[in-house]
Amino acid sequence: MVLQTGSRDLQLHPHVHCIVTGGGLVADGSRWLSARSQYLFPARVMAALFRGKLLDGLERLRQERRLRLDGPAVDLSHPVAWADFKDRLYRANWVVYAKRPFGGPDQVIRYLGRYTHRVAISNSRLVALDGDRVRFRTRGEHVATLPGPTFVGRFLLHVLPKGFVKIRHFGLMASVNVPTRLARARDLLAPRPTDSSAAPSAAAPDLTSPGWQPRCPACGSTDLVYLFPPAPVRPRPRPVGSPRAPPTQAQPRVVYV
Questions:
Q1: What number is the average pLDDT over the span 102-116?
Q2: Is residue 200 included in any domain, yes or no?
């Protein structure tokens, strides 16, 4: 799970990206149990569960007087305002966006790896400093221009509070499970070598051999199998001075009916 705090224009937009396995080990670790669908958990269930866990945690912090409600949130210190605030959050539809990676898991890891040890904005995105105004690239060819104090204020929005980290590992990826359960999962999912002596030959049959007999690939029957000569191919004109290619023997075309 990788934490990202903002958008390309440095607005505060905290969200997390999660890499989730398509299954898991059974309790005793004897076998791998794949997910019933392409996702491990239903997206709507995850959204409702995350909403409930987060709001319950906020409520517990408030009851323990560990939730600071000052500045723009000072009105929420009143119990009625706090209850109304929670009700509005519970009624809102929270979003969990789940999809298969188009470029495979390696592409996802490369994408998230670019954000794990970066600050809110890199030097390469800074375009110009014009007096007290800062210009920086947002996305593609687009740029944003902010007054200096506003730019610094937005930058400081992405300084993580004490105790927050950008990367968390859970489940099989937790450090305690890496040498045990993760190693077991990799062993169960590793491709097994096959016995080459028992596997049927994948080589194409020699259709010109006298002993070769065509068979239907579905039922193995030799009935209603016809051999047709290949369609005539118009030879391409030969460049002047190039040697004539030796004639090749045409291979019959097999059609199953």
A1: 83
A2: no
